[in-house]
């Protein structure tokens, strides 16, 4: 069931709930007696609910941000950049698709538009040869991977994330100067005209959403991935990646509880299926 | 509600376990109410016995004294999974008494044990082959034979493990329940329920299995299970989704398909981040009559008529004032506390615990409820317990306690009601309180 923010009794920050929940799942790994399946399952429900609310709020925020003229400016900028790596999809097709999307967006579509430039600018893939390539499983430079793979670079948190078949692969945290400086520069230029500089980066959530947007630009509200959010597997998929990533990040636990945590999630919820 | 008088509190004189404090983890009266068993986090079982009335010492009437103490479970290590198995006793269930000895089942997360508790008040004396100290006599010095005689000795209560039912549960055992046939019992973990015969330890039948083919598709777990008190083919199990399934073992060997499905539709206006957590059922208990069952979720107790599946017949709010505090209770893990509930002997009243060492009793006939506190201060021997009240509004009356003053570390998860009399046992962390109705 959808979680309605208005129905919340307590004024709870969805983001902090996510952080708290992930910490609980992480701590359960070391608790005496082994992982408690029941408790972790309940925590994953809180995670799912918080994520729903967070995404809703995030999109509401994005809707408010952008102006129509900035949309056009961004679209023009983007058409000069490297195409996204969509595997089987032809680069030209992608450009045409985006052009079409931009074309659609050029129609006065009020509240839907502001979303696009942010999406575009943040969905740009790191150019080949960037340090981020090593983190993208199939290379950042457009290897011929299968059609459901997308690599996105988020410049606010400097995380490269790969979304594959709805599964989110972690991710790197590269400092801005090291990672795709060229692209960063271009994105900065785009961002200054587009996104609000202090916009919160939803990272993996919107990464998955953005993949869907590509499939159906005409309906940004379409969200096939979330129609069965009652299914925990969906949640686990979105958060999933190798648990070794978690173990190597012991030193980064301080970061976990911060807002940057959303950008550097490990497979915390893998604990649920660790049996 | 009836007035309850404090009779005796105990627990402070028990030696603390060398590993962990002896937090009580289960409380259970036997069928006659003469014995009260408690299990703790250190794997120990302590059994109290009701002292018989004595004309010479009338003030001892109704007192429960320690009868037997033994170590039921020890911590273990599963080397294959690199997991430690806690020795904490999750549940104790008595068997109906069939001879002079008493039998109970105790379980931790993985292993169930059948214990025999027997009394020895006589000792054989006058052996031929050994002397009184136990030393073997020189056979050449034995010149005559005699028959050993039984001499009285100080009462000794011995506990010995008679059966060990192991290696049948991959997940953590949360329930055991003795069947009305007195030959079988069931044990439930997060995903499976097994049926055992009390005499057979190397085999059990799996009767419920809700493990999905792909664990990523897991959406609910089993939280409690109980056999019907009279119909030996019927049992129920509750889930983390707030549903109860009643199963009939005659219908099929594998009871994955339920006979009845009890669920109350969720109120959409009360939806929150924590809706799933607070709807998870922590305990299910049949009434003594077998006509009703009671479930406990985080904020309420519900009584269900077995003939009506779509909603409970009665709902009692235990501590509704916590609904606005769910976020804090989630942060400090209190929201995961598993409260139990129990019926009185006549099924006219139900009892369950809360925080701040409060426990609640509901009279089903008069619909009155009472909140009482189990604490040293409030339970001087023979003192009447004073009803407590939590103030929910802005104005706090005298003697009321505000929600923010509640001590959430003092939780009463385990309570038990004597099967016949108005005697209750309340476990408050590592103290056991026993209360009973005023005699006069």
UniProtKB/TrEMBL annotation, chain B:
* Molecular-function GO terms, alphabetical: protein phosphatase regulator activity
Q: Does the keyword Repeat apply?
A: yes
Q: Name one GO cellular component term.
A: protein phosphatase type 2A complex
Disordered, as annotated region = 374-397
Q: Which domain of life is it from?
A: Eukaryota
Q: Keywords in UniProt for this one?
A: Repeat, WD repeat
* The family this protein is said to belong to: Belongs to the phosphatase 2A regulatory subunit B family.
Subunit architecture: PP2A consists of a common heterodimeric core enzyme, composed of a 36 kDa catalytic subunit (subunit C) and a 65 kDa constant regulatory subunit (PR65 or subunit A), that associates with a variety of regulatory subunits.
Q: What is this protein called?
A: Serine/threonine-protein phosphatase 2A 55 kDa regulatory subunit B
Organism in which the protein naturally occurs: Fundulus heteroclitus (Killifish)
């Amino acid at each position: 069931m959808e979680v309605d923010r208005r129905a919340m009794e307590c004024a709870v920050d969805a983001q902090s709930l996510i952080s708290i929940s992930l910490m609980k799942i992480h701590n359960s790994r070391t608790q005496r007696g082994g992982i408690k399946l029941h408790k972790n399952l309940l925590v994953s429900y809180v995670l799912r609910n918080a994520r729903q609310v967070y995404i809703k709020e995030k999109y509401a925020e994005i809707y408010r941000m952008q102006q129509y003229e900035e949309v056009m400016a961004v679209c023009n900028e983007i058409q000069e950049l490297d195409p996204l790596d969509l595997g089987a999809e032809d680069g030209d097709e992608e450009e045409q698709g985006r052009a079409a999307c931009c074309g659609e967006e050029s129609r006065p579509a009020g509240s839907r538009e502001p979303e696009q430039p942010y999406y575009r600018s943040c969905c740009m893939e790191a150019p080949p040869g960037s340090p981020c390539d090593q983190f993208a499983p199939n290379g950042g430079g457009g290897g011929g991977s299968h059609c459901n793979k997308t690599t996105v670079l988020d410049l606010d948190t400097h995380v490269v994330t790969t979304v594959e078949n709805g599964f989110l692969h972690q991710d790197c945290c590269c400092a801005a100067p090291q990672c795709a400086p060229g692209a960063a520069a271009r994105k900065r230029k785009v961002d200054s005209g587009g996104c609000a500089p202090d916009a919160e980066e939803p990272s993996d959530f919107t990464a998955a959403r953005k993949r869907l947007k590509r499939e159906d630009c005409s309906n940004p509200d379409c969200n096939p991935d979330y129609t069965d959010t009652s299914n925990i597997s969906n949640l686990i998929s979105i958060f999933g990646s190798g648990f070794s990533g978690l173990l190597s990040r012991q030193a980064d636990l301080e970061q976990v509880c911060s807002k940057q945590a959303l950008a550097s999630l490990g497979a915390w919820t893998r604990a649920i299926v660790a049996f | 509600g009836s007035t309850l008088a404090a009779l005796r509190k105990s627990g402070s004189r028990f030696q603390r376990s060398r590993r962990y404090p002896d937090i009580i983890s289960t409380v259970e009266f036997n069928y006659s109410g003469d014995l009260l068993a408690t299990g703790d986090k250190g794997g120990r079982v302590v059994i109290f016995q009701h002292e018989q009335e004595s004309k010479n010492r009338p003030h001892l009437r109704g007192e429960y004294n320690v009868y037997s103490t033994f170590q039921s479970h020890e911590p273990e290590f599963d080397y294959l999974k690199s997991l430690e198995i806690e020795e904490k006793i999750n549940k104790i269930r008595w068997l109906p008494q069939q001879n002079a000895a008493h039998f109970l089942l105790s379980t931790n997360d993985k292993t169930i044990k059948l214990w025999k508790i027997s009394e020895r008040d006589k000792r054989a004396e006058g052996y031929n082959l050994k002397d009184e100290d136990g030393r073997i006599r020189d056979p050449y010095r034995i010149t005559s034979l005699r028959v050993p005689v039984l001499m009285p000795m100080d009462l000794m209560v011995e506990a010995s493990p008679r059966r060990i039912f192991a290696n049948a549960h991959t997940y953590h055992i949360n329930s055991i329940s003795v069947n009305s046939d007195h030959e079988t019992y069931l044990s439930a973990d997060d995903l499976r329920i097994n049926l055992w015969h009390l005499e057979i330890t190397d085999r059990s039948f799996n009767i419920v299995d809700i493990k999905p083919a792909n664990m990523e598709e897991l959406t609910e777990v089993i939280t409690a299970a109980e056999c019907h008190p009279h119909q030996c083919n019927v049992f129920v199990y509750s889930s983390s989704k707030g549903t109860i399934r009643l199963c009939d073992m005659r219908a099929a060997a594998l009871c994955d398909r339920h006979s009845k499905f009890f669920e109350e539709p969720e109120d959409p206006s009360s939806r929150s981040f924590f809706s799933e957590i607070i709807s998870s059922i922590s305990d299910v208990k049949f009434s003594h009559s077998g006509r009703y069952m009671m479930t406990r979720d985080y904020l309420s107790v519900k009584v269900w008529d077995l003939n009506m599946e779509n909603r409970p017949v009665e709902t009692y709010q235990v501590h509704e004032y916590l609904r606005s505090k769910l976020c804090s209770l989630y942060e400090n893990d209190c929201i995961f506390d598993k409260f139990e509930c129990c019926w009185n002997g006549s099924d006219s009243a139900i009892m369950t615990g809360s925080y701040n060492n409060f426990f609640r009793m509901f009279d089903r006939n008069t619909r009155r409820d009472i909140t009482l506190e189990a604490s040293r201060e409030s339970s001087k021997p023979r003192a009447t317990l004073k009803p407590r009240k939590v103030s929910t509004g802005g104005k706090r009356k005298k003697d009321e306690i505000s929600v923010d003053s509640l001590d959430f570390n003092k939780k009463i998860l385990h309570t038990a009601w004597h099967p016949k009399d108005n005697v209750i046992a309340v476990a408050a962390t590592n103290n056991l309180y026993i209360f009973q109705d005023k005699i006069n």
